Amino acid sequence: QVQLVESGGGLVQAGGSLRLSCVASGRTFSSYAMAWFRQAPGKDREFVSSISWSGGNTLYADSVKGRFTISRDNVKNTVYLQMNSLKPEDTAVYYCAARRVADDAPYYTAMDDWGKGTLVTVAS
User: Which pLDDT score, from 0 to 100, does residue 26 have?
Assistant: First the structure.
């Protein structure tokens, strides 16, 4: 398993940008697909974006497509979520998650490990 720690959340104005980071520790020599999820107050957790082990394949929820960019640096054991043109509806706790993989697909189901989350608040 790996331990995941998110950072980079905070308060931003609508239209602004923020970059989230998720650092993995533990058995980082294993292959993992990574994904970002978010949970707004009073709502269910939803998928945001995912990235394959190599970083060559990515997926985005329709709600963030064109505004958010996921990337990873396997040397630093870190996955990023660059968030631009933020909207108040992006306000949520953002979680990163990892899934052990044997291929290069950007999985976002049946995740094996989860971080504790970082809060993003977008003011209107």
Answer: 85
Residue 55 CB: number of other CB atoms within 10 A? 16
CB neighbour class for 41 (10 Å; exposed up to 12, middle 13-18, buried from 19): exposed
**CA 11 to chain CA mean position, Å:** 17
Phi, psi of 109 (to 5 degrees): -120, 160
What DSSP assignment string belongs to 60-97?
E-TTTTTTEEEEEETTTTEEEEEE-S--GGG-EEEEEE
Q: How far apart are CA 109 and CA 82, in angstroms?
A: 22
Distance CA 124, CA 112 (A): 35
Q: What is the pLDDT of residues 9-64, one digit of tens each?
A: 999 999 999 999 999 998 776 689 999 999 999 999 999 999 999 999 999 999 99
pLDDT digits (tens, 9 = 90+) for 112-122: 999 999 999 99
Contacts of 42 (CB under 8 A, 6+ apart): none
Tell me 16's DSSP state: -
